[in-house]
Amino acid sequence: MSKQRINTMEELSIAIGVSRPTLSRYFQDRTLVKEKTVARIEAGLARVEYIPNFFATRLNRKSTGIIGVIIPYLNDLFFTKLLESVEVAAMEAGLTVITQCSHSDPAIEARAAETFMSMNVDGALVAPLGDHSDRAVHQRLKSRLPFVLMDSRPKTMPDVDYVGTNHAQSTGLIVEYLCRVGEPPAFLAMPRVNFNALEREAAYIAKMNELGFEPEVIGVHQVADGAFFEDHGEAVLDAEFARGRFTERSILCVNDRVAIGAVRAAARHGLTPGRAMKGGLRIAGHDDYPLCPYLSPALTTVAQNTDAIGKKAVSRILQIIRGEVTDPSPEITLFDGELKLRESA
User: Fold this and answer.
1) Where is the HTH cro/C1-type domain positioned along the sequence (predicted)?
2) Contact assessment for residue 232 and residue 222, using Cβ atoms and an 8 Å cutoff
3) Which of 16, 60, 228, 285 could form a disulfide linkage to 301, CB 3.0–4.6 angstroms apart?
4) Which of 58, 78, 96 finishes a domain?
5) Greater pLDDT, 145 or 131
6) Are 21 and 44 in contact (CB under 8 A)?
7) Residues linked to residue 165 through DSSP beta bridges, in sequence order
8) Res 57 pLDDT > 80
């Protein structure tokens, strides 16, 4: 037998014989209602089909139990991994996550921040676009809500808590490895739009200088409209290989998405990157993109600790929400990368 469908709390009140104010208290916090009444409500709910309005039950709470997350790309599996770790940590803390994507557009990122402010979420975790993010909007967000940056820390937001990767350590780690096993690597960079890319490029140059080698950076200019990741890596190395350059060289790519394009360019020219004892083409990346083990050849890279980043970001936002932070200076937490040796380098 089908249950009676209930659409509003007023209808529910009539159907199970409990006043609307009591039902409102029950859905906000059942501990505010007497145990006998709780049992009566639950018995009534079992007889009907009713789903309480998620936002309505939170209107009068001091806390909505919601945190907002803004990520820059939906088609990037690195951010999928990071979002998964945030959601797991948030669920364990009894929070609900609402995610917005900026689609690499500062105006959309700003609108997402405004949306979270209008929703009175308890706090916001933001993986920003970089220095071209709308600083005024983020300053307003920080003044209204607990706010923590993840993955990228623009110079325009020095006073915001940040959780991310120690790019000097992670990039230095793979530069040292590549220098041990073959020719010192060239660095396949990106057009100047990605904050982490610039940090890794700087870390590459610093480590090469420290080791006594001459840095060589390629791919800093956009070679085709809309080509920033896989397309960029493929286009840059396709042109270099066509001129006979870098075919017997180690190439460190700024991230795994660029490296995927680089591996494709190698295949087009009949080249197979590999961990040869001496000489030969090697291609490596950074991030440990989920598809890296399944490329041919499997991609050597440096893994970012997305689980730790997500868990720490949620932990920090909870500390701020609960009023447990007394030091006004920003807390910066950096996690080391881990070398993942596979077939390509």
Assistant:
1) 8-51
2) yes
3) 285
4) 58
5) 145
6) no
7) 335
8) no
Name, in order, each residue with C-beta under 8 angstroms of 117's C-beta and a sequence gap of 6 or more.
140, 141, 144, 145
- Does 344 fall in a domain? no
Rounded-to-5 percentages of helix, strand, coil across the chain = 45, 15, 40
CATH of residue 31's domain is 1.10.260
The CA distances from residue 143 to 153, 175, 291, 301, in Å, are 18, 40, 39, 39
Query: Cα–Cα distance between 336 and 39 in angstroms, integer?
Result: 51
Q: Output the pLDDT for position 59.
A: 59
Residue range 158-172, pLDDT digits in tens: 999 999 999 999 999
CATH number of the domain that residue 202 is part of: 3.40.50.2300
DSSP states of 33-91: S-HHHHHHHHHHHHHEE----TTGGGTT-S---EEEEEES-SS-HHHHHHHHHHHHHHH
Number of domains in the chain: 3
pTM of the model: 0.85
Predicted local confidence at residue 213, as pLDDT? 98
Residue 278: its pLDDT value, please?
58
Name the nearest CA neighbour of 303 among 145, 153, 166, 104: 166
